[in-house]
Amino acid sequence: MTGSPEKGSDTPFKQCTCCGTVWQTREALLSDPAVEVVGYQAHFEKLVAGLFLFNHACGTTFALEVAKLVDLYAGPVFRRRLDGSADCLGYCIHREELQPCPAECECAFVREILQVVRGWPKRAA
After folding, report:
1. Cβ atoms of residues 17 and 68 within 8 Å
2. Which long-range CB contacts under 8 A does 22-26 form with residues at least 24 apart?
3. What is the pTM for the complete model shown?
4. What gap in Å lies between CA 85 and CA 66, rounded to an integer?
5. Which of 47, 48, 61, 117 is the most buried (most CB within 10 A)?
6. Predicted confidence band at 9 (pLDDT cuts at 50, 70, 90)?
7. Is 5's pLDDT higher than 60?
8. Contact assessment for residue 79 and residue 101, using Cβ atoms and an 8 Å cutoff
9. Cα–Cα distance between 112 and 118 in angstroms, integer?
10. Residue 85 neighbours by CB under 8 Å, 6+ apart
11. Within a 13 Å sphere around the CA of 101, how many CA atoms are in the beta-carbon half?
12. How far apart, in whole angstroms, are the C-alpha atoms of residue 1 and residue 63?
């Protein structure tokens, strides 16, 4: 997965639901200084169906499925999910919590993707 629209497709990667700004590629969206990742909404049954939440300078918040960014992570994916256990810090249940999780939990890879997105270089405005 490259995050770009299919070759020959006129479908953009993402369009702002409020102002209509179009990002043709994932890279265009992530490098836009008018876009800021502000949260993560977990989907515990299917982790790649979780949502990264972004604020756009026009004042809207929009979502992007984890599946659209999953290839940004190449590290380990742990087999056990630790939510609800003593080892879980509860980050995934707090939408606005953006820090990485140190637990060896099945959900931790999503939080690592979140770090990649947070650190994505922004182009000059």
Report:
1. no
2. 26/2, 26/68, 26/69
3. 0.87
4. 24
5. 117
6. low
7. no
8. no
9. 10
10. none
11. 26
12. 18
